[in-house]
Design brief:
Distance between the termini: 6 Å
Number of helices: 10
Structural class: alpha/beta
Radius of gyration: 19 Å
Helix content: 25-40%
Shape: globular
Length: 319
């Protein structure tokens, strides 16, 4: 990929404040040679296990991998999973002082049983998705007020696990507005009314269909849905991600279609995290929306060739 405007070197050192649902992705990996005699399910012979940052924490990892600096705001339980997340964030140089401990809930962990050929057998979710309130929500507000002061952009990663309440979303958007920096949202449909005033929202095509009640099968339909989504959400711009069909960017100034750049698809897990991380960091570096979307599209094409929640580097983007 050429970089005619010299965008890639400008990504380094930009500070992104990420607010959202931190998770831990736990992979139990083994071989499958037979079906259980007890039930029609595969027997997985354990080989090894892996832990990776998930949800908003994976978004943070993506920003850091591209050379950005990150401060993280979210919630976690008082448990070993939370300790593991904080330890890994610290190893990556990601600020985690904004992660508030809520002893009433467990840290979100997704346990996937996967074969050595990267085929998923089962998934178990450990979570408590009640929206935060009271002292926990107040602590999140305080972190937003403090950490937004030095941010170049704000990113809200909403996985509907409780960290992004209506008031938290409003506080993030207000903080960005007061500092005249971009605020981007990776949305969830039930929270569509939370995001008014955002710079950019990045629904996938299923989310865009659910919000607009429109089918998306063609480019024209994607742009029609993006326009209605923008009106419904009250945001400045919308980027609809369409998997192998690329992306549709709609702004007040017009539309831009980006064809998918995937060389091969191994796993789409976390691709949306890579898209919004790249978009946010590019906008933090001063890129126009279209150039940021092109860079994010390139990053998505690379990351889907990797297994599980993964990241992209500047070197990969520039190759």
């Amino acid at each position: 990929m050429t970089d005619p405007k010299g965008l890639l070197p400008r990504l380094a050192g930009r500070l992104v404040l990420i607010i959202g649902d931190v998770m831990l992705d736990h992979f139990v990996i083994g071989r499958v040679d037979r079906i259980s005699p007890e039930a029609p399910v595969p027997v997985v012979q354990f080989d090894h296990e892996e832990y990776r940052l998930g949800g908003a924490a994976n978004v943070a990892h993506n920003v850091a991998a591209l050379g950005g600096r990150v401060e993280m705001i979210g919630i976690a339980g008082e448990d070993a999973d939370a300790d593991r997340i904080r330890e890994e964030l610290g190893r990556l140089g990601i600020g985690s002082n904004g992660i508030v401990t809520d002893p009433r809930r467990r840290t979100t962990r997704k346990l996937r049983v996967v074969t050595t050929r990267n085929q998923q057998v089962a998934r178990i979710d450990y979570e408590d998705d009640r929206e935060i309130d009271g002292a926990v929500e107040a602590a999140v507000f305080a972190h937003i007020a403090q950490l937004s002061r030095s941010a170049d952009a704000i990113l809200v990663s909403d996985y509907l696990k409780g960290a992004v309440s209506r008031a938290v979303a409003a506080a993030a958007i207000a903080a960005a507005s007061s500092r005249r920096i971009p605020v981007l949202i990776d949305p969830k449909v039930p929270h569509i009314d939370y995001y008014r005033g955002a710079t950019l929202i990045t629904p996938n095509h299923h989310e865009a269909e659910a919000v607009t009640h429109m089918r998306i099968r063609t480019s024209d339909e994607a742009f029609a849905a993006a326009r209605r989504f923008r009106e419904r959400a009250g945001c400045d711009a919308v980027l609809v991600t369409r998997g192998e069909h690329g992306m549709a960017l709609h702004t007040a100034d017009g539309d831009a279609e980006l064809e998918a750049e995937a060389r091969e698809v191994s796993d789409v897990t976390g691709a949306g995290d890579t898209v919004i991380a790249t978009m946010t960091l590019a906008l933090a570096a001063g890129a126009p929306l279209v150039d940021a979307a092109r860079l994010a599209n390139r990053a998505a094409g690379i990351v889907v060739g990797k297994f599980g929640p993964a990241t992209v580097t500047v070197g990969e983007l520039g190759s």
